[in-house]
Specification:
This protein has about 280 residues and is an all-alpha fold. The chain folds into two domains: about 1-45; about 65-270, Orthogonal Bundle (MetI-like fold). Helices cover about 70% and strands about 0% of the residues. It has helices at about 1-35, 55-65, 65-100, 105-115, 120-130, 140-165, 165-175, 180-190, 195-210, 210-215, 225-230, 245-265, 265-270. The radius of gyration is 23 Å and the shape is globular. The two termini are about 40 Å apart.
């Protein structure tokens, strides 16, 4: 009998913890969605669902500022960062996982250590570098800056995944006369889709949500990304904050990420657990 009660308490405690975590993660998002449909005095109503739905906030976001341009900037920068991170990550992972050379482990640890530095620690040096290269207030400058925190993670995950692939595949490709590039593209890439999807999606999310570099390295609406555009939303005076517009813009920005994660959730889990089990 005691064992049954212990099992019930253990199971009940587990599900209670899961419910609390879900509420903690989901309720703020649902509150943002509900607030985005409220207008006027109803914005100060703490209820999750509005009494009457209005799309006025979504219309205002695009009418009062070039939010469509900010969305395009975020999409262009994020996609470019993903493509560059995966291209450089795959080639670097092949060298670190398959080519034996002195200092390989130290180099891999150094690459990982770069991602441990906070953004503010490299902000001033990165600003001088981007300004000296003539990339200030230009989208390529943001792409270059974002690579600092997307590339190390990409290289680390892909190296771990590629290291666990059977060496017989590479040996067979070499025997057939394949070059290193052909081995990567025709042998390894078809097997690396879980890791590629995981690292690509996480790089996209990191670039999409990045704020500090985007605020520092851009100075006009023509080049600002959506996080900066949302932060700079303001009303007619310093005491008037357009909460409805801010919530509407936040929902517009968040929904695509949620959809992408739901679509690729299985491959994300497979990519993150790659190398965790030795057969």
């Amino acid at each position: 009998m005691d064992a049954i009660w212990k099992r019930i308490l253990k199971t009940g405690g587990f599900y209670l913890l899961v419910i609390l975590i879900i509420l903690y993660a989901v309720v703020p998002f649902f509150y943002a969605i509900g607030t985005s449909f409220k207008r006027g005095a109803e914005l100060f109503d703490p209820s999750l669902f509005p009494l009457s739905f209005s799309f006025g906030n979504y219309v205002s976001v695009f009418q009062e500022q070039p939010f469509h341009k900010n969305l395009f900037n975020s999409i262009a920068v994020s996609l470019a960062v993903v493509v560059l991170s995966l291209f450089l990550g795959v080639t670097a992972a092949y060298s670190l996982a398959r080519v034996r050379f002195r200092g390989r482990t130290l180099l891999l640890l150094t690459i990982l250590a770069v991602s441990m530095f906070p953004q503010v620690a490299v902000l001033s040096g990165m600003f001088q570098l981007i300004r000296g290269a003539g990339l200030y207030n230009r989208l390529p400058g943001l792409m270059f800056a974002y690579m600092i925190f997307t590339l190390p993670f990409t290289v680390w995950v892909l190296t771990t995944f590629m290291r666990d692939l059977p060496t017989e595949l590479e040996e067979a490709a070499i025997m057939d006369g394949a070059s290193a590039w052909q081995t990567i593209t025709k042998v390894f890439l078809p097997l690396m889709w879980p890791a590629l999807v995981t690292t690509g999606l996480l790089a996209f999310i990191a670039a999409w949500n990045e704020f500090l570099f985007a605020l520092t390295f851009t100075s006009s609406n023509a080049t600002r990304t959506v996080p900066v555009a949302i932060a700079l939303l303001s009303g007619g005076s310093q005491y008037e904050i357009p909460w409805g517009n801010i919530m509407a813009a936040s929902v517009i920005v968040t929904v695509p990420l949620v959809v992408l994660v739901l679509i690729f959730q299985r491959k994300i889990i497979s990519g993150l657990t790659a190398g965790g089990v030795k057969g």
